[in-house]
């Protein structure tokens, strides 16, 4: 039996576990799930053979190391900041590791040690990052194999609510970590290239610089820039490309309304608010507005941010109940971002029968035989239910497939890596198609940079 250890069992793990369980007999797999809370994993495993579930506090080094020593490969589904702890143990005990998270500087620093011990530390093999890398590299390399040169690459991904569950004015619900949504775009200026010119968007302007794109059958979306598109110049071999832009997708109108929270300061996570647990939602909103002994909170906010009474943005704010004097924050020593998250979760938490949706869109501009051409590619995945979500499917399946490929010797290059080589992306993308995860590609006349914004 080949022994797989999954550390951490969050919302993205059900498909990962199901895939490995389904393969456990034919592939001779034994799967151990270790998490601080084992109830959910146990309920999904049931009486399936070749499995066990153990309670683990990852800060208990003895227990953690004992589990890692006993396995052949480790899957870390923990929050990204904890991967380095697992990775160091994997280096020590010569175990392969797979994660869906971005390669951190600390993980990257382990590359030479991993190579020396002939182990694989595979990262960024979820949906974004992950499927975006693999699908992009497959098309880019196909264009290059025909002698084409890349002049434009745009890539956008969104974790959204499925159309049949889209029933609020924001056209949005939390389908992933709410904290990441509230703090999105912070920590650095967005950087990208448009038609050969370097562009920069500071956080306070990020949500007012959006791009529009259409996906057949699903309508129009908007996208705001990710923090650093430029780091993919070398990764994707796009050093001479005139346009390189990566972003996050939302439904049109979301970003303009979200910009209100940014301007007010409600997304700030750098300080705590005094007596926050006793504040009402209305008190919290009023805390960011000027004092007036006669004007209401609503009037002050509309006046300060120049929001007309018949503006849909105003209706969106009202829908979130931010002016309610009776609802209490109930969080002690909370930051503005934490309080805003609490308020949003009242309205944006998925209901039992809600379904989520993953949308991904690539645009490739290239020149071949003296003629400019374009390929548009998009992927849409709808979740099944609250357990087997689209997010869990598109994150968990690539991780599981990479684990099996490493165990079977189909991925052999040692060291810290991401899925940008053919030995990784071709078989995984082909297998993902059997699970309904595929791209629709369309050849178009070259349109240049985002014609929908003209």
Description:
There is one protein chain. This protein has 454 residues and is an alpha/beta fold. It contains 16 helices and 16 strands. It has helices at 14-23, 39-45, 61-69, 83-93, 105-108, 111-116, 131-145, 178-182, 232-235, 254-264, 281-286, 297-304, 312-319, 336-348, 390-407, 422-433; strands at 2-7, 29-35, 51-55, 73-76, 96-99, 120-122, 149-161, 190-194, 197-201, 211-215, 219-225, 243-251, 356-368, 371-382, 415-417, 440-445. It has a 7-stranded parallel beta sheet with strand order 3-2-1-4-5-6-15, with helices on both faces. A 7-stranded mixed beta sheet has the order 10-11-12-7-13-14-16, with helices on one face. It has a two-stranded antiparallel ribbon with strand order 8-9. Strand 10 (211-215) and strand 11 form a beta hairpin. Helix 7 crosses helix 16 (422-433). The longest helix has 18 residues, at 390-407. The termini are far apart. 41% of the residues are buried.
Tell me the radius of gyration. Answer: 23 Å
The coarse silhouette is globular
What composes the largest sheet? 7 strands, parallel
Runs with pLDDT <50, length 5+?
Answer: none
* % residues in beta strands: 15-25%
Cα(first) to Cα(last) distance is: 59 Å
Question: Portion of residues in helices?
Answer: 25-40%
Q: What is the strand and helix layout of this fold?
A:
Blueprint: E1 2-7, H1 14-23, E2 29-35, H2 39-45, E3 51-55, H3 61-69, E4 73-76, H4 83-93, E5 96-99, H5 105-108, H6 111-116, E6 120-122, H7 131-145, E7 149-161, H8 178-182, E8 190-194, E9 197-201, E10 211-215, E11 219-225, H9 232-235, E12 243-251, H10 254-264, H11 281-286, H12 297-304, H13 312-319, H14 336-348, E13 356-368, E14 371-382, H15 390-407, E15 415-417, H16 422-433, E16 440-445
Pfam families: Sacchrp_dh_C, Sacchrp_dh_NADP
Keywords: Oxidoreductase
Domain Saccharopine dehydrogenase-like C-terminal: 126-437
């Amino acid at each position: 039996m080949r022994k797989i250890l999954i550390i951490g069992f969050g919302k993205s793990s059900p498909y990962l576990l199901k895939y490995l369980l389904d393969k456990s007999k034919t592939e001779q797999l034994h799967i151990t799930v270790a998490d601080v809370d084992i109830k959910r994993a146990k309920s999904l495993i049931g009486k399936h053979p070749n499995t066990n579930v153990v309670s683990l506090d990852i800060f208990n080094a003895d227990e953690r190391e004992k589990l890692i020593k006993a396995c052949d490969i480790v899957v870390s589904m923990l929050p990204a900041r904890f991967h380095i702890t697992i990775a160091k143990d994997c280096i020590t005990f010569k175990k392969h590791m797979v994660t869906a998270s971005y390669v951190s500087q600390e993980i990257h620093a382990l590359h030479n040690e991993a190579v020396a011990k002939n182990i694989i530390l595979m990262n960024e093999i979820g949906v974004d990052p992950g499927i975006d890398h693999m699908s992009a590299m497959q098309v880019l390399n196909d264009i290059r194999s025909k002698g084409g040169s890349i002049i434009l690459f745009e890539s956008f991904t969104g974790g959204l609510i499925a159309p049949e569950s889209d029933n609020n004015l924001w056209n949005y619900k939390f389908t992933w970590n709410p904290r990441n949504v509230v703090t999105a775009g912070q920590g650095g200026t967005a950087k990208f290239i448009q038609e050969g010119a370097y562009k920069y968007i500071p956080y306070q302007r990020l949500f007012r610089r959006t791009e529009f794109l259409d996906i057949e059958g699903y309508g129009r979306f908007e996208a705001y820039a990710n923090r650093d598109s430029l780091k993919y110049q070398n990764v994707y071999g796009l050093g001479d490309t005139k346009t390189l832009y990566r972003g996050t997708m939302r439904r049109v109108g979301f970003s303009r309304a979200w910009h209100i929270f940014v301007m007010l300061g409600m997304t700030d996570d750098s300080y705590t608010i005094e007596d926050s647990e006793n504040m009402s939602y209305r008190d919290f909103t009023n805390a960011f507005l000027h004092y007036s002994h006669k004007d209401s909170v609503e009037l002050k906010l509309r006046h300060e941010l120049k929001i007309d009474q018949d503006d849909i943005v105003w209706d969106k704010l009202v829908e979130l109940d931010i002016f309610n004097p009776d609802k209490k924050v109930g969080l002690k020593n909370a930051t503005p971002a934490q309080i805003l998250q609490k308020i949003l979760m009242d309205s944006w938490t998925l209901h039992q029968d809600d379904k989520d949706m993953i949308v991904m869109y690539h645009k490739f501009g290239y020149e071949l035989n003296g003629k400019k051409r374009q390929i548009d590619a998009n992927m849409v995945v709808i979740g099944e239910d609250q357990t087997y979500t689209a997010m869990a499917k598109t994150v968990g399946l690539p991780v599981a497939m990479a684990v099996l490929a490493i165990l079977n010797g189909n991925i052999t290059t040692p060291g810290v890596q991401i899925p940008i080589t053919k030995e990784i992306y071709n078989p995984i993308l082909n297998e993902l198609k059997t699970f309904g995860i595929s791209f629709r590609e369309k050849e178009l006349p070259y349109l240049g940079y985002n014609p929908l914004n003209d």
